[in-house]
Amino acid sequence: MTQGESVQELNKEKITIFNIPILWFLIIFSITLLAMYTGNLPAGMVGALLIMMVLGELFGWIGDNTPIIKSYLGGGAILSVFGSAFIVHMNLMPAETTEMITDFIQVGGFLNFYIAALITGSILGIDSKVLLKVGSRFAIPLLGAVATVILLGGIAGFFVGNGFIQTILIIVLPIMGGGMGTGGIPMSQLYSDVLGNDPSFYISLLVPAIALGNLFAIVIASMLNAIGKKYPHLTGNGEMMPGLHFEKKKTTYNISQMGIGLISGLLFFVISQMLGEVIPLHPFALMIILLTILKISGILPKIIVDGANAWYQFVAKNWTFAILVGIGITFTDLNVIIQALTLEFIIIVGIIVIGAALSAGFIGKLVGFYPIEAAIASGLGMTNMGGTGDVSVLAAAKRMDLMPFCQISSTLGAALILFLADIFTKFL
């Protein structure tokens, strides 16, 4: 081997984080921390996104290269969420930085921006016949999972002394309700209206179930990914149904295409917001329906479809770990999770999430889906924390292409859960 070949071989083996040689990445990381701790981090999007990307890529690299975490606990996805939540929990991040990131995610709408890109690109990138066949039967495993976990959770609660109906109302339905915005908050108001007490009283009861259910969903998603690698016949590696193979176009990151994709994602989200003024559905649910109709009809020009797909791939590749850090800092309260960790509570939550995944996978298989994809999209899509949970679960499962189906579970499924919550409160 010549000296030139030796140098080339060494360069191939160099460790990189975010495709940056590790030494240079650590320099970037150090400068970012210095700016944060000396109060020189720019306010708004610049400072928030820099911290989120640098922390996210570091946590992502560690998680994806640590054996047990990588194989069984969600890898970089779970470490990004709970590593950043731990930093906040231990007061290692300045309060102004935490507030800046929280504002960027919620008030600045970066989470909606991210999810809108994923929904637009993933739906428009799906072959129309796949969309038709999958969409027409997707409700079956979803409804089966809901029925199964209501029964299992209620029975488990009865045997540990929590009561059948009480367990369904306080643990099962909050976990299945699509997170806080579409589940926990409206559910607490519903309970307040029917049962009395202030909504904040019920929020404090519902949050532990929502948070712990999300954690279980992330871990189980990673385990399902590992099972899929061991038993390839159980998974389509992101495709919902066997026999519907279509060639995915390799997208080159054309700057003009990505600009078109960016505008498309924002436009469809705005249209869905406007439709939400007259149609009582979550904007993401309306967005899925609108994009599905447009894709099946074939009326969108190729330049928009290709642009949406290019932008989707750029966003998923470069900002997934960043958004997970934002989720950890903004939505993951370790105090709430720690306080809920009684053995009985953990067992019931575990039964609910595992039951949802297994029943959705089994029923999904019966209607023609790959069981692992059905378990993730229908089962875990119902038990995670809505949009934030969908991102975390799909990152852990390494199946971001399932985002539209997870969003169906989180948004349309949440409406079903609120309807059931209203019914079950009548039994008290």
Task: Explain briefly what this protein structure is.
This protein has helices spanning 3-12, 22-37, 45-64, 67-72, 75-89, 95-105, 110-124, 128-135, 139-159, 164-176, 180-195, 199-230, 255-275, 283-297, 302-331, 334-339, 343-366, 371-383, 386-397, 403-425; strands at residues 16-17, 20-21. The chain is mainly α.
Show the helix and strand layout.
Elements: H1 3-12, E1 16-17, E2 20-21, H2 22-37, H3 45-64, H4 67-72, H5 75-89, H6 95-105, H7 110-124, H8 128-135, H9 139-159, H10 164-176, H11 180-195, H12 199-230, H13 255-275, H14 283-297, H15 302-331, H16 334-339, H17 343-366, H18 371-383, H19 386-397, H20 403-425
Antiparallel strand pairs: 1-2
What would your notes on this structure say?
- This protein folds into two domains: 11-105; 110-425, no CATH class.
- With 428 residues, it is mainly alpha-helical.
- Residues 6-12 have low confidence and may be disordered.
- Helix content is 76%, strand content 1%.
- Helix 12 packs antiparallel against helix 18 (371-383) and helix 12 runs parallel beside helix 19.
- A two-stranded antiparallel sheet has the order 1-2.
- The chain contains 20 helices and two strands.
- The radius of gyration is 22 Å and the shape is globular.
- The longest helix is centred in the middle third of the chain and has 32 residues, at 199-230.
